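Quick one from the shared queue. A colleague (R.T.) flagged NAD(P)H-dependent oxidoreductase as missing a structural entry in our internal table.

Convert sequence to structure tokens.
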Amino acid sequence: MSKKLVAFFSASGTTKKVAQMIAEEAKADLFEIEPKVPYTKLDLDWMNKKSRSSVEMSDKKYRPAIMKKEMDMSSYDEILLGFPIWWYVAPTIINTFLETYDFSGKKIVLFATSGGSGFGNTVKELQSSASDAVITEGRLLNCGTKQEITEWVNSL
């Protein structure tokens, strides 16, 4: 049996709840990707082109700093990586995470929460940040129900 890690970024708490349920269902370890500077409600105002999230997402090279935690990724075979969808893709903080740790030879399965959009080009945009890993599009888990999560985890 392979060892799994559920890693996630959650700006408002929605993705965190889903990640916790996935970790429990998958009997996986849980790892929160935390920005060095937490996002405020104003930072997340996607209607404001000058908000922090809008500025970050307009520059695909931007890498928000994260709290670096000691983590031995070599002990995991599969990483379930979750985040909210921002501007039809993963937030650039996910690139920061993938570039901070070594994911060589790992299988990374994505899951996301979204107000309405799908994964878009997420896999393509993340692959260069973990070029030696296999990244696959998982599932949007917007409902976050136990049944939805159980079915998805069992399908992996």
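The beta strands are 4-8, 29-32, 78-84, 107-113, 134-140.
Residues 18 and 105 are 26 Å apart (CA to CA).
Added to the table.
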